Amino acid sequence: MKSVLITGASSGLGKEFALLYSEKGYKIYAHGRSHSKLATLQNKIESSGGQVQIITADLSDRDAASSIFAAVSDTDTVDILINNAGVGYFGPLSTSTSAELEEMVTTNVFAPISLTKEFITQYDQGKIVNIISTAGLRGKVNESLYVASKFALRGFAESMQKELASTNISIVNAYMGGMDTPFWEGSDHIADRSRLRSPREVAQLIVERAESELEIIIESKK
């Protein structure tokens, strides 16, 4: 049985990735910070006959990447790593804080770099899917620090595509517009969430296109 490791799988896009890949027959390694949310996901997958193992870890911990991979069964190989976990704070640069910048860089940049290093160190084949967002393609008002973190991830991910071009590990970079997920809870940055795609729709598009494409761009509906 093939397996997929998904970070940030407790809700939103990551949760939909877990459900979709389970439906495709994959064993799911679902990472997140909320054990209760992951347990709910686990119950849903197992009730449908799927296999899932939940991994609770805080990506701000420098040892998180190694501990996440250490949780993978010795009898398993991770066929797909999805670097999905992300965090964003929005508003003018003048009102931003150092803590917000540090959290975004740690989660959006350092974590996927560390997880990618663990993957390519342990396996000689497979696929890594980086969930980058269209914030990694162009600047946006009141998103300067978030965009900066996503541009950094894009630079790393594109470099890895070149570095691993002659290997059996492929790097897929996905750039999607905002989605109607809990990501926006507590924020007034998006006034009309009805224009956003559902995480299920975006997950389906990425899963389908990642079979044959190395760059995926999915704009918001409107």
UniProtKB/TrEMBL annotation:
Keyword terms: Oxidoreductase
Molecular-function GO terms, alphabetical: oxidoreductase activity
Enzyme class (EC, first level): oxidoreductase
PROSITE patterns hit by this protein: ADH_SHORT
Listed EC numbers: 1.-.-.-
Domain of life: Bacteria
Pfam families in alphabetical order: adh_short
Keyword Oxidoreductase attributed: yes
InterPro entries membership: NAD(P)-bd_dom_sf, Sc_DH/Rdtase_CS, SDR_fam
PANTHER family hit by this protein: DEHYDROGENASE/REDUCTASE SDR FAMILY MEMBER 7B (PTHR44196), DEHYDROGENASE_REDUCTASE SDR FAMILY MEMBER 7B (PTHR44196:SF1)
Family: Belongs to the short-chain dehydrogenases/reductases (SDR) family.
Protein name according to UniProt: SDR family oxidoreductase
Organism whose genome encodes this protein: Bacillus spongiae
